[in-house]
Specification:
The protein is an alpha/beta fold and 351 residues long. The protein has one domain: Ribonuclease Z/Hydroxyacylglutathione hydrolase-like (Metallo-beta-lactamase, Chain A, 4-Layer Sandwich), CATH 3.60.15. It is 32% helix and 23% strand. The protein contains 10 helices and 16 strands. The strands form 4 sheets. The protein has a 7-stranded mixed beta sheet with strand order 3-4-5-6-7-8-9. A 5-stranded mixed beta sheet has the order 10-11-12-13-14. A hairpin with a 6-residue loop joins strand 4 and strand 5. The longest helix is centred in the C-terminal third of the chain and has 22 residues.
Length: 351
């Protein structure tokens, strides 16, 4: 285990990284008193996820679980032996329902007879995706994308019809302990507070401990990339980007010296600098998109404005969802108007 006192910080991009080396799989680095950093592999482009193990008196609290599958289960079993010191897991806290965070929640809950804590909207979304309910399917996304002028399922590179959520989340816990925004609870004698965030997922629960000066940020504030913010088929006219940016503003009100513990990348200092950078990034993308809509354009036609590199069908899937979130942001604020065409598609133009 690696203590913060034993690590020399380094800085990059205006941020300070006090732990420049990530833990190896099945290892744990102590980043604050009683707060341990784990890293698990992922079977897709992000490659890794950071998970957190919190000492809690005679037990342990797990924050996020990793992608479901035998490799991650094997790493957890090694951690049980090497790092729990004979103490049980007493709580499992989930920041949000995405498979890299929620995947092994049911398995860990069964292993330890421990309750799963998460917000109710996240649990409801997990249930809907797991059962492929109504609009919570890959096909529903494809139908929405077609309405915006895009077809991404080709004979040469077809999208899988597999329920990818089930691939990463084999089972859903039968029940949860619901969390809510501003809720406070004790872990190891310290008060932790839920700071809800929106846009990336329905009600993402970041966890802030003022006494330790730590925010377990999940996917809401990442050091090197901007989290995906996409329009969902069951809420096609929603404004997830607006909610995400408002959430970032709220996080920036935390102490400037807060140690940020993101789900991807390295722990860092520089919360307010990073929030400013993310606001600036999205403002630039919005202005670029607005300028591209001098004539009526479909979402498919303006997606290359935001995503200039070549994309495979799977990358296009996420890029289109994010393009629509930026278009909806401008439309909701009347910077763009949306036109319904005779073929049922939509086009956007400057208002």
């Amino acid at each position: 285990m690696l203590s913060a006192a034993k690590v020399k910080s380094h800085a990059a991009g205006g941020l300070e990284y006090p732990f420049p080396e990530a833990p190896a799989p099945a290892e744990a680095h102590e980043v604050a008193p009683g707060v341990y950093w784990l890293r698990m592999p992922l079977p897709f482009a992000l490659e890794h996820i950071n998970l957190w193990l919190l000492a809690d008196g005679d037990g342990w609290v797990i924050v996020d679980c990793g992608f479901g599958g035998n490799p991650t289960r094997g790493l957890w079993r090694r951690i049980f032996v090497s790092h729990l010191r004979g103490k049980p897991v007493t709580r499992i806290i989930i920041t949000h329902f995405h498979p890299d965070h929620f995947g092994l929640a049911a398995w860990l809950a069964d292993e330890w007879r421990a309750p799963v804590w998460m917000t109710e909207p996240e649990f409801a979304s997990a249930q809907a995706w797991h059962t492929a309910h109504d609009l919570f399917t890959r096909e529903a996304y494809l139908a929405m994308f077609r309405q915006h002028g895009l077809r991404i399922d080709t004979a040469e590179q077809p999208l899988t019809r597999e329920n990818l959520f089930k691939r990463g989340v084999a089972a859903i816990p039968p029940r949860i302990v619901p969390m809510h925004d501003d809720q406070e609870f004790q872990i190891n004698g310290c008060a932790w507070r839920v700071v809800a965030g929106y846009g990336h997922s329905p009600e993402h629960a970041a966890l802030f401990c003022d006494e330790l000066g730590v925010l377990i940020a999940g996917d809401m504030v990442l050091p090197r990339i901007s989290t995906n913010v996409s329009v969902q088929p069951h809420l096609p006219d929603a404004d997830p980007l607006g909610r995400f940016l408002a959430s970032l503003t709220r996080y920036s009100e935390l102490d400037a010296g807060t140690l940020m513990l993101p789900s991807h990348g390295l722990p860092f200092y520089g919360l307010r600098e990073r929030v400013k950078s993310l606001h600036r990034h999205h403002a630039e993308r919005l202005d670029e998109l607005w300028r591209a809509c001098g004539q009526p354009r479909t979402g498919a036609e303006v997606m290359p404005v935001l995503f200039k590199r070549a994309l495979d069908p799977q990358q296009t899937f996420f890029a289109m969802g994010e393009t629509l979130s930026h278009l909806n942001f401008l439309w909701q604020r009347r910077r763009l108007k949306r036109e319904s065409c005779a073929d049922g598609s939509y086009r956007f133009a400057r208002a």
